[in-house]
Amino acid sequence: MKLKKYDGNPILSSNPANEWENYCVLNPAVIYDEAKREFVMLYRAAGDTEMHHIHLGLATSKDGFHFERQSDKPVFSPSVDGPDAGCVEDPRVVKFGDWYYMTYAARPYAPGRYWSAEAMKKRTWLNPPADGPAFLKGNDTLTHLAITQDFRTFKRLGRITDSRDDDRDVILFPEKINGKFVRLSRPTRYREGAPSCPKPSTWIAYSEDLMEWSNPKVLMQGETDWESLKIGGSCPPLRTEKGWLHIYHGVAEKEKGRGYRAGAVLLDLDNPEKILARTKDPILEPEAECEIRGIYSGCVFPTGNVIVDGMLYVYYGAADKYVCVATVELDAFLEYLMNECRL
Questions:
Q1: In whole angstroms, what separates CA 242 from the centre of its chain?
Q2: Is residue 132 classed exposed, middle or buried when 0-12, 13-18 and 19+ CB atoms within 10 A define those classes?
Q3: CA distances from 258 to 250, 286, 290, 305 (A)
Q4: Strands (E), 52-98
């Protein structure tokens, strides 16, 4: 079963009026505000600059398809001199009580035009000390946590991943399970003495306070051709009557790091380490013009999902250039997972 892509995609494109978002918008976090009956989107954005600082913008919608920007300025930007001074990207958002918790990937230095090998050789602003931290020398990713109640003011809480692991795609479950917070993540390097696996995969870990995470373990690895190079979590898990519904991404070995596609799993509600069902074929893959031509040509990268009135909305970045959406009736999708993909 494939998700149905919206005919009006892309639903958000770069804005030439604002320098901070005049080159690309992508990989959004989306939640549904029940009180306002409104879709709220935090989207990644960057301007056409050499350093390519990455910010987050805010947009809202009443129908989940037509979004309006809420500010000409970013609502969340890299700090001036902190560990997230280079970029704040790929947000994922869940709600606990009256607060929204946002995980985001960050780098100490601006990434530059990462799609250009020539540009990457000219990043003169990278000046880490030779004997400094490994993540600083590599400009590696750390995942940070921030909280907000209005998506306009945020409190940064700091990093929640080990600085030695180059860990991103960190996603929180929207409620505690057996009294503990649960997260998914995708490390690409493993510190000495830590568990490891052959290829970047989805890991699961638990925490008492959201900041310190103990005993991470591999939850799932790539199994079929379309996910043979690496996989990682994409969207925050959603509670359904059949289990935790989680959309993840995969990349094929033969496509050498390009060709991002998406699949789905159902995890047990009480034991999220137990996979109940998993799609063998992609439920979303690059096909449309906006998905196959861009910064990362041939890429669909989901980062936000909500269930509203029985419909699953999945929001994704297309070719690292646009924001798109696809939908499916939840009951039909769950039936497909339980009948056709059950393990």
A1: 23
A2: exposed
A3: 10, 10, 15, 23
A4: 54-61, 68-69, 87-96
- Return the CATH fold of 4-122+134-340: Tachylectin-2; Chain A (2.115.10)
pLDDT tens, 53-78?
A: 999 999 999 999 999 999 999 999 99
**Phi and psi, residue 191, nearest 5°:** -65, 160
**DSSP helix/strand/coil, 171:** strand
Tokens, residue 66:
């037509």
Nearby residues of 40 by Cβ (< 8 Å), 6 or more positions away: 30, 31, 32, 33, 58, 60, 151
Structure tokens at 61: 């919608």
Structure token pair of residue 100: 């929204």
- Beta partners for residue 30, in sequence order: 41
User: Which candidate, 314, 325, 300, 307, places its Cα nearest to that of 67?
Assistant: 325
Q: Is 120 helix (H, G, I), strand (E, B) or coil?
A: helix
How many Å apart are CA 43 and CA 57, to the nearest integer? 5
- What is the pTM (predicted TM-score) of this model? 0.97
The predicted structure's pLDDT at residue 44: 98
The per-residue b/e assignment along 184-216, b for 16 or more CB within 10 angstroms, e otherwise, is bbbbbbbeeeeeeeeebbbbbbbbeebeebeeb
Backbone angles phi, psi at 188, to 5 degrees: -115, -5
pLDDT at 174: 98
DSSP result, 203-254: EEEEESSSS--EEEEEEE---SGGGSSEEEE-S--EEETTEEEEEEEEE-GG
The pair phi, psi for residue 36, each rounded to 5°, is -90, -10
Read off the pLDDT of residues 201-241 as tens digits, 9 standing for 90 and up: 999 999 999 999 988 999 999 999 999 999 999 999 999 99
Which residue ranges in the chain fall short of pLDDT 50? none
